[in-house]
Amino acid sequence: MATLDNVSLYKLWIAAITILPFTQTLSQTENYIVHMDLSVMPGAFSGQHQWYLSTLADVSDRSTARATATTSTASSKLLYSYTHVIDGFSASLTPSELEVLKNSPGYISSIKDLPVKHDTTRSSKFLGLTPQSPAWKVSNHGEGVIIGLVDTGVWPESQSYREHGMPEIPKRWKGECEGGTQFKSSKCNKKLIGARFFNRGLIAKYPNTTISVNSTRDTDGHGTHTSSTAAGNYVEGASYFGYAPGTANGVAPLAHVAMYKAFWDEGAYTTDIIAAIDQAISDGVDILSLSLGLDGIPLSEDPIALATFAAVEKNVFVSTSAGNEGPFYETLHNGIPWVLTVAAGTLDREFNAVLTLGNGISIAGSSLYLGTTYFYEVPIVYMNGCHKMSKLIKLGQKIVVCQVGNDGNDLSDRVENVSEANVTAGVFITGFTDTEEFIQNRFPVVLLNQKDGKTIIDYIKNSNKPQASVEFRKTSLWIKSAPSVTSYSSRGPSASCPVVMKPDIMAPGLTYISCMA
Ligand SMILES: *[C@@H]1O[C@H](CO)[C@@H](O)[C@H](O)[C@H]1NC(C)=O
Ligand SMILES: *[C@@H]1O[C@H](CO)[C@@H](O)[C@H](O)[C@H]1NC(C)=O
Ligand SMILES: *[C@@H]1O[C@H](CO)[C@@H](O)[C@H](O)[C@H]1NC(C)=O
Ligand SMILES: *[C@@H]1O[C@H](CO)[C@@H](O)[C@H](O)[C@H]1NC(C)=O
Asked: What keywords sit in the KW lines (predicted)?
């Protein structure tokens, strides 16, 4: 036998290391949504679920050339059988199993599972919804309507889900209140009438993941926010740490809520989301509210587009968010022509801190600071651009005024430097309008526009002992520039269907506007 020379050994070694990872990926499974032709289903099957199980048992059998595949291995592959959203199912398949499936009777097409991202006390008054307004009269505050949400779950103890004043649950309702981790099925009532959760797709994708709260309980806050905005009951005396005081309620305060949790701290996948939509259609929701969407996928391959089409066919009205990727064009993710796509607008409300200068002049700036409410007669200094950290740290207990340009990055750096310098508060003069991340600061930050900034600088320069008091937690209403589109709201057109103008309408999304705008 000829001995191998070094070059041949090297070639073999290279071949081995390139083949090894390849064979590993071959055995890895992926989730697929599989569209089937029901007309081909043999009459012997009692229903489509049995047919799908049998098809999958056959597939894993043939792809491994073993005759041992049983229905139990098939049922571990099957994630969901869908009834409404498509004729078909989702399953966790190896590449070879998928190839075999493609030749099975009834197979039409398959789509690979995809990860999905999910993107108030004044809104109803601002929208003109008073007890006398036609919209509330005609709809009777949404009485009898069931709103289903596919979201992060719900926090059922929130006052917004009290059943006080709610009508009976409609007889046609077929939904359920599923119990689970930290969520008893007794948590539902006449307001929150349904709670279900979907994570088989997520777990098939990440078999080793632990679902920390395996129930409809909301560990994020998004679903509680969206569902109470849509249909929350009246909550008197609500406020955000003193900001925005008033009565909180949804825009349809007599409507019922059903929550379908498909967004998890651990991730979210289309197989679970369309399973949630499928169930919501079965349960009998009237409206589906989805704060989600896929980007850059043709409508024919977008499981959410397909699922919402089925919902609309069954007389369910579907409302979706435009996305939060603005202000750039073509960032809109729900170009789906058959759903309502809603952009985010501002409310006529502003959260303020009021600065009262030593000369008695008062100036309102933007702030959402939640710490100390009041600083009384503190020395105030103007530090130009606030670039010199060495000077800032020597100031001590003073209010520091900085002139910042219109550049958000510069503002971000200056706020960070001043907050690290241990001064009392920072006042930033800027034309930058996307202020949300700055005013919600652990450090007392006040933002001023150029005109008010000049008033303060003039005062400091002309006073021999400049000082100011600051009061936080102030709320102003009736701000004239509202409504306007928020800068974060995604803009059309949608790449998947540019011929249909989107978004369709705008609704209050930002709960305040800043005085910068
Ligand atoms: C999951 O955990 C098992 C056992 O700890 C390990 O063998 C496997 O590689 C892990 N899988 C993934 C995808 O991390
Ligand atoms: C989550 O709860 C469901 C229903 O109670 C159960 O079937 C499932 O196995 C649970 N999943 C995990 C990861 O604990
Ligand atoms: C000031 O901010 C800059 C970022 O703009 C940062 O690199 C620098 O470390 C900060 N200085 C101090 C002393 O924190
Ligand atoms: C700010 O104050 C904290 C706590 O008093 C202290 O630990 C820190 O070193 C101070 N920072 C500066 C820049 O002086």
From this structure: Hydrolase, Protease, Serine protease, Signal
